[in-house]
From TrEMBL:
Record-annotated membrane-spanning stretches: 232-255
Superkingdom of origin organism: Eukaryota
Sorted UniProt keywords: Membrane, Signal, Transmembrane, Transmembrane helix
Signal peptide: 1-24
Matches recorded under Gene3D superfamilies: Immunoglobulins
Identification of the protein by name: Hepatocyte cell adhesion molecule-like isoform X1
Amino acid sequence: MPLTIFEVFLFFCLCSWSPAGVFGDEVKSVSVTEGDSVSLHTDYTDTLRKGSIEWKFGPKDILIAQINRKDNVSTIFNDSAGGRFRDRLKLDQTGSLIITNTRTTDSGLYKVFSSRRETPLDIFNLTVYAPLSTPNIIRDSLSVQNSSSSSGPASSCVFLCSVVNVDHVTLSWYKGNSLLSSISVSDLSRSLSLHLECLDDFYSCVVNNPIRNQTTHLNTQLCQTCSDSVSLIVWISAAGGFLLIVTTVGIFCICRKYRRTDK
């Protein structure tokens, strides 16, 4: 039976189709904390029994590792990429790349190439995050004095939550599970203030990146100290106001007395 035009066209498309056209279309995102090991596993290594597989790094596609699938002989190029990967790269039998003792400078694109194809088999976008430090909560004593002299509630305090030696994280205040405020931290030292009444200790400050978080809860004693400080400031202010009134009345009485004496 002769083939129809559609069947001929379909047969031609199937014959001309190549898996290289779909390789590397999707970038796989991988995140890890600095110091941990990470394995970049490509799904196509088991299907390529001959030729070699090459791993390249960065926008310039710097060759950092290679494995010959025919005899399973792997080569690590320690001097590539300025030697940043020296003694930290491994290739397993499947051709997957293992990076040990990761550093933030390891972040970037990793591409898998076959010696038989020009397009990448796989592309990985690796992000290495610095370890998170624990947030620090302190009482802003200057803000306590300012709030007590204003028309705000006498028991209100301002607490500062800060984090250091981190980059590209989010710093947030919570009351229980409810988010109160949040900022994105892109530099090494930022603080986030919280104006509250010292009623309970359900407040916490959280710093997090896409893979981890650290939490510090507001200390009840710190809140109590804040309330005592505000009460002391309010008492001093009240005493000062009373003394001012007494002094004013006294001066008025003295002036009136001297005025009568003159007459």
